[in-house]
Specification:
Layout (H helix, E strand, L loop, with lengths): L1 H25 L3 H8 L10 H13 L4 H14 L4 H13 L3 H14 L4 H10 L3 H22 L3 H14 L5 H12 L4 H14 L4 H10 L2
Helix pairs in contact: 1-2, 2-3, 3-4, 4-5, 5-6, 6-7, 8-9, 9-10, 10-11, 11-12
């Protein structure tokens, strides 16, 4: 009975820590997230696939790409039929300029979810020209710089970096959605927010998050 009680409290403790780690990760605090998630890597109380996936994200955010790739592969060993795991692995390979590995990973993601246009867009980068590849890497670098500015609440500087990022690569809706969110939540300009949410939807018309964000500012 005592062991069951201990197990119950440990389960609750691990789940609470996991949620805290995800919150840190979502807000761009990658180092803090990894410090919370790493001690949980052997917990029997958590979904290991999701734990490894989010731990990988925390490590990748700190440019610890090899370690992030290791945990992504661990997640894939558990559940190889999840398209987002393969797509994320492709992204990590892109950042390491491991183009052959990136191509294999994105092809697997496309095989699992052939209707996801975002995966085809990523494949176009991987199989594209050297200039396109270099532009994509610069785009990603600017995204990271913007996240750091957002953590310091330097909202205008964050937007400047994001606008510059889409000068290098504008095929996905992510950055436009981020700009819209900053205008809506932090700079108090719903008109500009709506403009950027619309641009995000133009690039990813199936994305429900982008649609919901636009609907919210148009109320």
């Amino acid at each position: 009975m005592l062991n069951k009680i201990k197990g119950f409290f440990q389960k609750m403790k691990d789940k609470k820590a996991f949620k805290s780690g995800i919150k840190k990760l979502d807000n761009g605090y990658y180092k803090e997230a990894s410090k919370i998630l790493l001690p949980l890597k052997d917990s029997p109380h958590l979904n290991q696939e999701m734990l490894y996936f989010n731990l990988a994200g925390a490590l990748i955010g700190q440019d610890k790409l090899n370690k992030g790739e290791k945990y992504l592969k661990k997640a894939i060993e558990i559940e190889a039929e999840q398209d987002y795991l393969w797509a994320t692995l492709a992204e990590v390979n892109i950042l390491q300029q491991k183009w052959d590995s990136a191509e294999k990973a994105i092809k697997k993601a496309l095989k699992l979810e052939p209707e996801k246009k975002i995966y085809q867009t990523k494949k176009d980068v991987i199989c594209g020209s050297e200039e396109l590849k270099e532009n994509y890497l610069e785009y990603f670098k600017l995204l990271k710089e913007s996240i750091e500015e957002q953590k310091q609440e330097n909202w205008k500087k964050a937007v400047e970096l994001l606008v510059k990022a889409v000068e290098y690569y504008d095929k996905t809706g992510y950055v436009f959605n981020q700009i819209g969110a900053i205008y809506n939540n932090n700079l108090g300009n719903k008109e500009l927010a709506a403009e950027f949410f619309k641009k995000a939807i133009e690039r990813e018309p199936e994305n429900e998050v982008f649609k919901r964000n636009l609907k919210q500012v148009l109320r």
